[in-house]
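Q: Could you fold this chain for me?
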Amino acid sequence: MHDPQSINLNEILKYWGFSDAKITKYFHPDSPRIVAEISDVNIHYILKGIPDTRDGESREEQTICGNVLAHHFLGNQKGIAPQIFPTKCSTQDYYLNKDGYWFYLIEFIEGRPMHETPEDELGKNAAFLGRIFLPISTE
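A: Sure. Below is the predicted structure, expressed as structure tokens.
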């Protein structure tokens, strides 16, 4: 697994079209996951990265797919969670695998930080939605 501190997040952010974004804060720096607040022209985002263990059918990719589906439905469609943003290479790709991590970018909402674990309410909603709707294309 890669050291989260060694990853150049500015290179990752280029996949979302950022060229001069600033990393303003790291959340849970002792965690293997990456959670960073990003600022670009006074707009704030959260970049999240989940380590890819490369264990065949990756549990981490399943987690990313669930998070993407939940953010897309609850945030982008219903407006009750942070919105998720597609990469600039495709309006259908909301996450990418780079430098040993699965990354996605969401809207920053001021307030109490959410704790992201598989048992989270967001994860439960994603699992429920995954049974109802077809997954968002990642190809």
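A (continued): The longest strand covers residues 43-51.
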